[in-house]
Write a structure and sequence with these properties.
Two copies of one chain form a homodimer. The first copy, chain A, has three domains: about 180 residues, MoaB/Mog-like domain (Molybdenum Cofactor Biosythetic Enzyme, Chain A), CATH 3.40.980.10; about 80 residues, Alpha-Beta Plaits (2-Layer Sandwich), CATH 3.30.70; about 140 residues, Maf protein. The first copy, chain A, starts with a strand and ends with a helix. Chain A has 13 helices and 17 strands. In chain A, helix 2 packs parallel to helix 6, helix 3 crosses helix 4 and helix 9 packs parallel to helix 13. Chain A has about 425 residues and is α/β, with parallel strands linked by helices. At the A-B interface, helix 2, strand 2, helix 3, helix 10 and strand 14 of A face helix 2, strand 2, helix 3, helix 10 and strand 14 of B. Strand 2 of chain A pairs antiparallel with strand 2 of chain B, so a sheet runs across the interface.
């Protein structure tokens, strides 16, 4: 089964918007074992959209076309598909009502233009998912009863609308057409503390065995401050069976990787640490120099952080370390300074536990120490403990790696897992 | 003049990497007045790359193909282009030497595979720019002396290598072929304090007049925490003349928009505020509640912030506001709290000036006030002053808008411009 992706929008060609939708759809198709050989961007031009769709239909069994389903005159995907199908557009009364209701429920007046969104090519039908006002369309080409017939799926360009439709309708429908009656489920483990190549070495034989077995696939992706992600994808006759396979492989990976795994449900490190503190009834604070507020910013980006997180002292200037956090006057990129910062954060901010970071972010060295030198510390039960680390990369990467590393240190010290 | 973009790489189709290169190239082509009607992603497959190039050459005058120029067996773009040109690949001794020298200068042994990168289709020539080991190729199709002949440009997928080649060779060569002998220069002004539609209204007549005059184009783009960007692009016989046009239009826009413009050289708000403080010999601190360290994190992401920025108190818990910053016990989403936070930041962190933010980031209301309610304050000469604002969007957007808005408030209070 082959499915091409066509993204519609002049703004995509002009580089005003980056086409992330096609990549997302490509990943979903790959997960379902559907090949996507070509993906095309085309502007808001009827003739060119039509020729792109025709070429795609010649090469593939199906096409997902993304964008151009809005209510304005620029939104011509519906019309073009009707042309390619060789049929008329007709207004669908059920859709019309659905759109009217949507506006009413939001207490807004519906611009008349929006009714264009209720127009369907004859023979096409709307997708069940409709998070916005733009319906997604399933458009069979030729005889709709031909099980080997080709099909165009039209979805809006708004990512969350598109995603609901691709997951809810497009992928299941493609799998049905392919005669595949299995379910696909995936699960992301996140790890920290081992490089990509180190992990590849640890998992090499397992990975090969897994691929050969066909019961599951495993891919990994280094994702900066988000950790190193391991993605398991399982196919099975039912979703429950696929979930069982994922649970078994997850347990196996946890056994092999142990404490390197910090979440098995794609949660970020900061979410894991907040949850861990919440479970233990602990409040959390940070003292930051080289990260300059990045740790606090990541923690507070999570809704509900306030029941755990007390605050942070960003002690960028040395005097702030001395005066506010009580760091002994002396070198500030040192074990002593890191420990005093962590202990000071607990004391000053009234927190049970804390993390602290001091180091050299660059562009130049500091206190005779090279860029990437970082002391990380934690404080638990009033007692600080520090660890040095040498981080690779530029300022941005040093700050990101320091953030996830020091949070990981606290997670380990609290004896998670 | 029409130029298509072809991005090569199976990982692009699988969604493992997002194709940002095509968007970047599309923007550069648009800037030069070159139309890009189609952009295609294709996997590492010789037959499919060849058919994509042939189709693109039928529809357009030129093709930029991006990726597949590395040293491995997967990198087949060179071979495919030779096939499309109907010529052989031959090793170029000058290129071979250049690649050998590059490895030598880095003190590394050259894998023999890398010499594949010295292979050129007969009739093609390498681009002058070569920041990595992959040469970019200019590949005339048919008679190379035909001024109306078509051409394939091959550039590597590594963004900074690709960008140097597109700017240095591809765009100038396309303009030469189009018989255009002008230079193109652009300049980005950033604004804050007016919505996209408000700005469109203010600039509408000017925009139309400018477009009609042909001396310059103007595009705007809302960019969250980066501000609202106005991009001027001028074409003129020489770079100096284009720069003159840009300077004149920039001055005009500054006159119309006044204090809304915070930078005319694409600098971020935090860079502008740091520079302003540096000029005035002022040190800076922040006190953050709803932004939770985001302001400090943005400031310290800039190298050299340490000579201005003292630090921040992230007072997420109310007690930290009371105990550390000296905020009077009472409602914390209030004018009084914001002013006390700003004054407290200067006092506690030993800074000359400060910004402070307290508000409701969501997901739920707080102190009976709705999500998006924010009090922003500044402190200059020991004196705090606050302003309320109601920000749109979710938690992430409220935090971002609060960050740029409060920094803008300090910029205005310091009487910038």
């Amino acid at each position: 089964m082959r499915c091409e992706v066509v993204a519609v929008g002049t703004e995509l060609l002009l580089g005003q918007i980056i086409d992330t939708n096609s990549s997302w759809i490509g990943a979903k198709l790959a997960e379902a074992g559907i090949d996507s050989m070509f993906q095309t961007k085309v502007g808001d031009n009827a003739e060119r959209i039509a020729s792109t769709l025709r070429t795609a239909l010649e090469r593939a069994d199906a096409v997902v076309v993304c964008g151009g389903l809005g209510p304005t005159q620029d939104d011509i995907t519906r019309d073009v598909i009707a042309g390619v199908m060789g049929v008329e557009l007709v207004r669908d009364p059920t859709l019309e009502e659905r759109i009217r209701d949507l506006f009413e429920s939001r207490g807004r007046t519906m611009p008349l233009n929006n009714l264009r969104q209720a127009d369907l090519p004859v023979g096409a039908y709307p997708m069940a998912q409709m998070p916005g006002t733009a319906p997604g369309l399933v458009c069979p080409i030729g005889d709709p009863d031909d099980p080997h017939g080709k099909v165009i799926y039209a979805v809006p360009g708004v990512p969350y609308e598109m995603q609901a439709m691709v997951e809810g309708t497009v992928v299941p429908d493609l799998m049905r057409r392919a005669g595949e009656s299995f379910a696909i489920r995936s699960r992301t483990l996140r790890t920290w503390g081992q490089s990509e190549s180190g992990l590849a070495e640890m998992l090499g034989p397992y990975h090969d065995e897994l691929e050969a077995s066909g019961r599951c696939t495993l891919a990994w992706l280094a994702s900066g401050m988000e950790g190193l992600k391991l993605r398991l994808t399982a196919k099975a006759p039912t979703a429950a069976e696929a979930d069982e396979v994922l649970a078994a492989e997850t347990a196996f990976l946890e056994g092999v990787l142990g404490d390197l795994v910090f979440s098995t449900d794609d949660r970020s490190m900061e979410a894991v640490v907040l949850d861990l503190c919440r479970e233990r009834g602990l409040t959390l604070a940070t003292a930051e120099s080289v990260t300059g507020g990045l740790i606090a910013s990541r923690l507070t980006n999570i809704g509900g952080a306030s029941d755990v997180f007390r605050g942070s002292v960003v002690s960028y200037a040395s005097e702030v370390k001395f005066d506010v956090l009580g760091v002994p006057v002396g070198p500030v990129i040192s074990e002593e300074a890191a420990v005093a910062m962590a202990e000071g954060a607990c004391r000053v901010l009234g927190a049970d536990v804390s993390v602290a970071v001091t180091g050299v972010g660059g562009p130049t060295e500091q206190e005779g120490q090279p860029v990437g030198t970082v002391w990380m510390a934690t404080c638990v039960d009033g007692e600080g403990a520090a660890l040095p680390v040498r981080l690779p990369g530029d300022r941005e990467r040093v700050r990101q790696f320091a953030t996830i590393s020091v949070l990981n240190l606290l997670r380990q010290r609290l004896g998670a897992r």
